[in-house]
Amino acid sequence: MATGYSAQRTSRRPSSRLRTAIGLGALAEVVVYVLVASWIGVGLTVLATLATSALGWVLLARQGTKALGELRQRAEEHRAPGRALGDAGLIALGGLLMVLPGFIGDLLGLLCLLPFTRALPRALFARALANRLPDAMRGPVRVRSVRTETVSGPQEPFRAGPATRVIEGEVAP
């Protein structure tokens, strides 16, 4: 039986990669949970899970209130949200990871929730986002000069007309 649809995929869609990553993460959580349960016992593992979930709620409430206060203050002062908006997102993600059962998620959630460790996930997300942006939307371009000899310019460097100066260099990453 032939159909009119015969498109072949050569690359995986981002949604299938995300589903694969979530599935592998859930599998890793189950493996770690079973290993911890076999090491310290099922009862203590359940208690540890409940304790980390309660800690997640407390940290989410405390850090979330601070982040929302910062966002509210920036809005009242008509300033751009900047880093405060990113911190609020990381706090929400960290709280979700802490509340869900699992020890790997708890560690990742703590990285997002604690103010002194939040710089690491912020940098990772910023790098991932910057790699997905087109070149025209990326940050400032840094140029390093590679000229080794002097160049004499025109006698009137700022006269009107077409540009007469050439600056040699290379774009540094």
UniProtKB/TrEMBL annotation:
Sorted keywords for this record are: Membrane, Transmembrane, Transmembrane helix
The answer to keyword rRNA-binding applying to this record is: no
Q: What is this protein called?
A: FxsA family protein
Q: TM segments?
A: 21-40, 84-104
Which species is this record about?
Answer: Modestobacter versicolor
Pfam families, per the entry = FxsA (PF04186)
Q: Which InterPro entries match?
A: FxsA (IPR007313)
Gene Ontology terms: cellular component? membrane
Domain of life here?
Answer: Bacteria
Against PANTHER family, the record matches this protein to: UPF0716 PROTEIN FXSA
